[in-house]
Design a protein that fits this description.
By secondary structure, this protein is mostly helical. The chain has one domain (about 1-250). Helix content is about 75%, strand content about 0%. It has 8 helices and no strands. It has helices at about 1-25, 40-65, 70-90, 95-120, 135-160, 170-195, 200-220, 225-250.
Length: about 260
């Protein structure tokens, strides 16, 4: 397990280092286009939305059986991210305006939910576990609420209530900046909890949020089909893989105080 943890953090360092190199190429205006024959819509659906579905189901079941509070928020945040990705590619609309707007707001919602879980889990001594065991029905209604929120985002975008991120990139940058801060802060909180509790689930969760932070930054600085663009996509994919590792490895640690 120690070796796998070292590999986990090493992957984050490699991504960050590669991002610095690719960002430098962009600044120097050195051509570095990198096209992949598989459409982004297929890759994103497979490595974001499909993985999100597995994560959400496992997180819900593990929360019911273990009572680990942050699991339900992990599920909420992952569901918002995965559903937002689907709106990015599969809404029956012409143009990029509505898909870009709905996806970025959904990612902001995901960041808020992950961050909320980190705050709630850090408000009490060793407050990662609760004696209360909610039923699957409660989890179902919670997930339904997240999907309803994403649907509302789509509806508001269709009606022109939300500003156009495609036409006003400055607003999009602000939304991405807030998401970046929330993901990064949530990651640091979970890392602090891991250093205190030594619970592997918190370690992988923290690194997963780091990947989301890197993905937001890389994509905000990248041009389409650049190496930095695909590195940002890969960071999103890796983040979901890490979250899947986190929820699969969840068990009830004896060392955590239930009181």
């Amino acid at each position: 397990m120690l070796m796998s943890k070292r590999f986990g953090i090493a992957a984050v360092v490699v991504f960050a280092g590669a991002g610095i190199v690719f960002l430098g190429l962009n600044i120097l205006d050195i051509a570095e286009d990198f096209r992949i024959n598989i459409p982004s819509s297929i890759l994103d659906t497979a490595f974001i939305s499909t993985l999100a579905l597995f994560i959400v189901v496992i997180a819900g079941r593990k929360y019911v059986s273990s009572g680990i509070k942050s699991l339900v928020w992990l599920g909420f945040g992952t569901l918002a991210f995965g559903a937002g990705n689907l709106t990015r590619w599969w809404l029956p609309v012409n143009g990029l305006d509505i898909p870009i707007t709905t996806n970025d707001i959904a990612i902001l919602l995901a960041a808020v939910l992950h961050f909320s879980g980190a705050i709630i889990g850090n408000t009490r001594k060793d407050a990662t576990v609760s004696r209360l065991r909610p039923g699957l029905a409660a989890i179902f209604f919670g997930y339904a609420g997240v999907l309803a929120a994403v649907a509302l985002i789509v509806l508001l975008a269709f009606r022109g209530v939300t500003p156009s991120f495609y036409m006003h990139p400055a607003i999009r940058d602000v939304v991405r900046g807030i998401s970046f801060v929330l993901f990064l802060t949530g990651s640091l909180i979970y890392l602090k909890l891991f250093l205190k509790l030594r619970y592997d689930y918190l370690y992988w969760y923290s690194l997963g949020l780091v990947f989301f932070t890197l993905g937001i930054f890389f994509l905000s600085q990248a041009s389409i089909d650049s190496l930095l663009f695909w590195l940002g996509k890969a960071a999103y994919y890796s983040g979901h893989i890490y979250l899947l590792i986190a929820v699969i490895g969840v068990h009830l640690p004896e060392s955590i105080d239930l009181e």
